[in-house]
Amino acid sequence: MNGKQLRNSILQWAIQGKLVPQDPNDEPAWVLLEKIRAEKAKQSKARKGKKTKISTSTEVDTPFDIPSSWAWTTLGEIGKWQAGATPNRANSSYYGGDIPWLKTGDLNDGIIDNIPENITQKALKETSVKLNPEGSVLIAMYGATIGKIGILKFPATTNQACCACTEYTGVEQKYLFYFLLSHRDEFIRLGGGGAQPNISKEKIVATLFPLPPLAEQRRIVEKIEEVMPLVNRYEECQMELDELNGQIKDLLKKSILQEAIQGRLVEQDEHDEPAEVLLQRIRQQKQSDKSNKNKKSKNKTATDFTPPFQIPSSWIWTTIGEIGEAELGKTLDNERNKGELKPYLCALNVQWHGFNLANIKQIKIEENEKERYLLKQGDLLICEGGDVGRCAIWKGEDEIYYQNALHRVRFHCGVSTKFYEYVLSLFKSLGVIDDRSKGVTIKHFTSGVLKALPVPLPPLAEQRRIVEKIEEAFSVLDGIEKALN
Fold first, then answer.
1. Same-domain status, 345 and 452
2. Residue 63 belongs to a domain
3. Distances (CA, A) of 293 to 231, 296, 327
4. Do 104 and 195 have their domain in common?
5. 105 in a domain, yes or no?
6. Where are the alpha helices (DSSP H) in 340-459?
7. Could you read off the pLDDT of 151-162 as tens digits, one per residue?
8. Tens digits of residue pLDDT in 160-175
9. How many CB atoms lie within 10 A of CB 214?
């Protein structure tokens, strides 16, 4: 249970009579309710409109059971509620005075001791805005802040999106406050969602309210305020623990990848075809490939560098350029580009190990460009700029092209794209990619640097075993994290 869930549970226990024991010496709530009604009648402040007769839990369809000493009523019966207004913004004489004017964004689920905007006495006299007394309990009725609440520390007006309970007879201020806080999710549900959810004053006053004896209300408030600081501390500790768990998980994943890329995650199989034979086959394929005919390869081998770590004897050092075909995409310039508009994947769409396909752009592609820039399943896309090295494997089936800020890598002879996605992920976390990128303010992981990037090449069968073991280990870590949360 997280901090929010625990806080909500405590509030639910409170309004259901489960947080503190009942005292048989307390005056029953139904007696208190009759006093409330008598007092309101005496002061001629009964609610307008159709009266709702609610006195016991047997007379209404109640959402939960309450103790026998409690009574069901409504928010409209225990308090006087009024909405605010917004003086005409075009009239400058209405603003800049000495009367605080609260907007729902100023609500803080606590004591409101600061309201940045003020209106004038003229606005109070000439508009429908109302001055709420100190101690009024406020609730936001619609918009993004729906259900937010607060208690005024001084008299103030509000806008029309805020409803204020200015008088609450026979009810502890803080008990009403905590009830509204516990009821927020229900208010949001009643608001109906949409672009402008709205609970309205009518829905507020009709809301069922569990009324405890007055003495018990005070005990409930006291207990809530005793335990909430402990809940807050629990939440802080949980956040610190979650952060620590996240760091540990990241370290464990990095450690797993290091073991994998150095050939220590799975056992070598003497029956596997050695990586050197695989590399020779890749070179032969590239030489016979018609697309590379009459082209001189500028890809550097990995024989002229000092290996950063030891690899098994069945592995070999190579480069991305040796084992894969890497090419940047097409520049988005629809004023100059010609051809048919096609969906176009940008660097912003590429996330680690996945894609955000919202807001896909369009680019003009000519017929003779389609083969060159069309993405195929299994292509590895790598960010050339910004968060250099961020990469993901394209698995979609739709016709889509890619940006010049992305490298597209296709590996030869069945080399595992997933294995090298993990290699790049490790190199990124170790700073290898950033160190090799060019630029100060904006980094660029250029084609030359990518193609010359030294990488270990395991036998094909071992690549598959490594990927399977990595994903198994990562799944266990994700399961542990989920269980902890």
1. yes
2. yes
3. 70, 8, 17
4. yes
5. yes
6. 370-373, 417-429, 432-436, 447-451
7. 999 999 999 999
8. 999 999 988 889 999 9
9. 17
